[in-house]
From TrEMBL:
Protein kinase domain mapped to chain residues: 169-439
Cell location: Endomembrane system; Membrane
GO cellular component: endomembrane system
Annotated keywords: Leucine-rich repeat, Membrane, Repeat, Signal, Transmembrane, Transmembrane helix
The keyword Nucleotide-binding belongs to this UniProt entry's keyword annotation: no
UniProt xrefs under Gene3D superfamilies: Phosphorylase Kinase, domain 1, Ribonuclease Inhibitor, Transferase(Phosphotransferase) domain 1
Protein name in the entry: Protein kinase domain-containing protein
GO MF entry, a single one: ATP binding
Presence of keyword Membrane: yes
Recorded topology in the membrane: Single-pass membrane protein; Single-pass type I membrane protein
Amino acid sequence: HGCSSLNLEGLALLDFHARVSYDPNGAFISWNINDHDPCSWSHVHCVSGHVHAINLKGQSLEGVLAPELGNLTHLRRLVLSHNHFSGVIPKELGELKLLEMLDLRANKLIGKIPPEIEKLQSLNILLLYNNNLEENIPQNVENLNFLYKLQFVPNFTFNVKDAIRFLNRKLGGCIWQGNFNPNSCVLFKGTLPNGVEICVASTTITRLKDWSKRAELALHKKIETLSRVNHKNFVNLIGYCEEDEPFVRMMVFEYAPHGTLSEHLHVQALEHLDWRSRIRIIMGVAYCLQCMHDLNPPVTHMHLDSNTIYLTDDFAAKIACLNFWKEFYPKTKMSGANESLHSPRNDDKETDIYSFGVLLLEIVSGKHQNIEKLEPLVTWAEQFLEEKENISHIIDPDLKSFELNELEIVCEVIQECIKKDGSQRPSINEIIPKLREVLKVSPQQATPRLSPLWWAELELLSIKEGTT
């Protein structure tokens, strides 16, 4: 670099630029060797004078990834997806100790995933699909404490340990595995012969002798309960399968292709939700919860949060009850034995209402329910909820616009839902008219415009009839 006055981070970026052989959109036009630091360069984001993020997504770049990227020691996000980078992933990326997101999707990378990736102890998200990489994932990647999303195959987002286990066995199709019990459950994405996509939830137990009578009773109870909920904003149960040899216990659900609400609120690489989308999601959840609570006996969720809300192609909300497998195994003393077999109590509804209030708060603020794992979201928000003139401070800074009167009614409902005394919380039937009057979203407007559920049911029936 001659006598350049650039700092070390700038020099590392120039080395990266030098390995780019084709830049049709002029992504690097502002990258100047005569600058003192690179913080003014396009596609580079700095904090306190250090490079924290590089985002060159979709620039049609060609070249190879420079080992010098490993010198960007303050880097938090490296997004190079949807380009034409070739060659291998540099092992030097393992030196990026603060890296939280590595997105190399949709390139032409080859070879093995370097084992040095195991050193990225701050990594949250690793996205690698649509490359020509070898399938095996370094086994120790599962030891990355903060890694919660690993995407190696298009449309499949894996729990980390499950991804390693199933991809390395070349089984594919697995999209999640529960972590509440070593013999819990696994979710698969499947496609019926007519093209309809489904989600299959199966126990990981493989032998009948390991399956208890209590688990069998709980499974049938859960099937009975879930089959009573039939709502367009619910991830509906389509069918189930029982076989003793080979041992199979599984349920078949609708599939919502756009992932969870949590991902769209908190993962920057995913599509941003504008205000109207969030309002529609709020009402979709409310209408579905109303349907569940109005059943006799009522069906309660008990785990409602942004991770249990899935989004359809048109970003309609669907409440999912896919974490039920833990109910089929022995409970800890803390959780209460046989709780899942009891009829829902009134305080179960009150718990759902509290969770609904916290969910609304997360949707409008864009903040995790535990802010930086230090302060509960409700505690943070109380300072703004108490004074009406301060509620605009709650709003997600990523939102370009919002309606103040709509925010006010949402915040009013939040305050009522999160009351410490559950008996003072409103019912969902009291909440909905209040929200609907201001938000102006009908049940029809909140539901998915297209639903493959009935086609999936017909297909399953035809398969069943064909085998009898």
